[in-house]
Amino acid sequence: MFPTVREVLALDPVRHGAPRLVAGDAGLDAPVRWVHVAEVPDIATLLGGGELVLTTGIGLPADDTGLRAFIGDLADVGVSGLVVELGRRYVSGVPRVMAAAAERRGLPLVELRRATPFVRITEAVHALIVDAQLTELRATEEIHQRFTELSVEGAGPAEVVRQAAELAGCPVVLENLSRQVLAYDPAGESAELLLDGWEQHSRRIRPAGRTAYDADSGWLVTTVGARGQDWGRLLLRWPGGGDLAAGTTLGGRPAGTPPTRLTILVERAASTLALGRLIRRDAEGLERQIHRTLLTALLDHSRPVDEVALRARALGVTLERRHLVGVVVRHRLDDPAEGTAGESTVAAESPEAGPARLRDLAEAVGQALREAKLTGLTSAVDDQAVGALLALPDPAAEERALTAFAAALRRIRLDAAPARPTVAGAVPPDAVIVAAGSGVGGLREARRSLIEARQIADAARRDRRDLPIFRLPHVGLAGLLHLLRDEPRVQTFVERELGALLAHDARHPRDQLLGTLRAYLEQGRNKSAAAAAAHLSRPAFYERLARIARILDVDLDSVEACLSLHVALLALDAIRTP
């Protein structure tokens, strides 16, 4: 926010004095924090750095040694420059020894060859400083106001990132802990160039601190999270990085360092993103809101179980002394356009399509319960799924009730939606998954059944079987890891196990070792079979395995170590697969 020596020399009061730079042109981009008038040789002890010193020279030492010491003291304390008015002490110019000393230290030394009131210079520079500070303050105030409004409105990640890019005028990317892009805005640049090879590029960005600037890559990075749980990073590419010479300064900060305003911006944007993740909004009818409140209370332990039972009974749903089964119904595809081989759909085009699609599914689930003559609580449990807690008279009725519910739901959805042509092998855009948790004997255990059903539904998205109901035995390890892919602890496990190897592959695109490790583990640690699967000679394959062991600091002959690495690979695949 401070003007540089170069900018000060361009001011009218300074130009009136016919300035001439005699030494230290390398320091012209130094910031001027303040202007100080001095006529004593030991002024350096009273300065704090960043000052532009004005003097007539009448109090300066007469000998060469004293002049060198004077210049050295000013440079040591970090002043921005020295301006000497000619005519009182020095007539034709400053002493050569003084100019030579300033040149050696890179300290700008300027002669004013015409008498100029110093007060006009100080007024002009200080006005420039104050104006720059006010501009920075206004920009900061706008940032706080803009993101406060976004927080109050419950804006989604895409809108927060878009606003951040608009305010900064720079590309902004939001990623999770596994370097997968969650939202981005290229700020008018090419999105393809911005995101090409993003994971490898992101792994090279290693800032020192929670919010820091990585000068090598030109990205300003801050961690995103709340309540001690970090779940992503927000990155802003500042175009000034890497364009200035090392060691110079600009605007009151080291060269190549983003303005303070941008640091404030990314931190406020990260706070808004973290807060938005904690807020859930839904516009539903009063009865459905109560159903959702009660289901959420069971999932989050936000209300006593007895209170949930009482309020449910008031709605005509008896949960006490019943066999309870948690059910979750969700679409296989979050975006209907994913299953239509490039065809545009109304759901994909309308911003209201997602909530409307979820409401339609919730209505169908409720109607299916009524047609199957079942009672229970039902409502949307998140942005993609509808949950139901079935209250059955006894365990023997569980399978019959679930079969009747699934059949009723399928019939209702077929009657409500006309058939759409789909590409062979593509997932129908309307396909849904019905998942059921284990039945429990009381309301205090209902949460376990609901969570199990939600996890099964998420994991079943990777299963292409068209089962009427998915239960726990249908979910394998890959499915389990898929449903846990957004869990920061799983992402942290992957980074701990494979981070060094992924970083190596990012630095050496032509020497990808992850595939070698995958072949070795998928062939049951049979090196010969793995070498054949990788299309490598055995000596070459063995050498790559040795390098992998060194990079990861692990014994690849250890069954336990390889099991851990194999699980990490499966988790990495789950994270990378939407």
UniProtKB/TrEMBL annotation:
Domain of life per record: Bacteria
All residue ranges annotated as the PucR C-terminal helix-turn-helix domain in the record: 513-571
Domain Purine catabolism PurC-like: 7-129
Annotated TM spans: none
Signal peptide: none
Any Pfam family hit: GGDEF_2
Start and end residues of each CdaR GGDEF-like domain: 305-458
Family: Belongs to the CdaR family.
Record-given protein name: Purine catabolism regulator
Organism name: Micromonospora purpureochromogenes
